[in-house]
Amino acid sequence: MVMSLNDAFTEYACVLLFSIRKHNPFLLAPLVVLHSQTLSPLSETNQQRIRSLWPEVTFKLVKAEPYHRFFPVTPPRLHAALLKLEMFNLIDAARIIFLDADMLCLGDITPLFTLDVPFAACPAGKDRKRKEEVADSFRRIGFNTGVMVIGREHLDGRTYQKLLGSPLKPCPTADQDILNRFFRWKRIYCLDHRFNYHAHFFWKGDETDVKILHYAGEKPLEKPGEARMGVWFDCQRQMRAHRE
Questions:
Q1: What tens digit of pLDDT does each residue of 26-83 get?
Q2: What is the CATH number of domain 2-243?
Q3: I want to staple 153 with a disulfide (CB 3.0 to 4.6 A). Which of 103, 118, 211, 242 is the partner?
């Protein structure tokens, strides 16, 4: 597994990792955490918090300079998200499962770890019917970068260099724009959207088949009173009780 992380999102990452262990107790996947001194700083204290929940972790310090060229076309609040492109530079990996930190695991995610495809992600947007129609098929489609499976084909350094050299066009969603442009004419494998279930668009609270709930947009700590945040706070309380 790979995550891109900074101090501001450490609590989200901790809750996510705890929830993965809860629902996937036998999953022994190593974790790589990408961070940067300037672009995405992660303190030693927060590194230890991650390590206490997931001992099989490696922290990879990344140089931010290659991503500076995208700053003028990317909203400042999303500059840190550009670091996600660094996962394509992990050339020793056979397969990568990338997860955003602002997520909550609610079920079995082991199928992601056996999926043998060049690239997989969930379709973007709020058209649920369309997402369900294309699930488990190869399509040319816009996708969300919260959950991705990257196969060996894109982990030999060539994709990474192409991404870094992407044309400088507006990137209102940072890495997501860059990656969608790169894969625009390629058929990607569409994950079932329950592996990247949009909390704002779809969550009702009575779902039993969601694997990963994604708090894209507003986060639980920003809007704690929203009903869809309740399941996250329940998991946070369980995590804290477990530590005690």
A1: 999 999 999 999 999 999 999 999 999 999 999 999 999 999 999 999 999 999 999 9
A2: 3.90.550.10
A3: 118
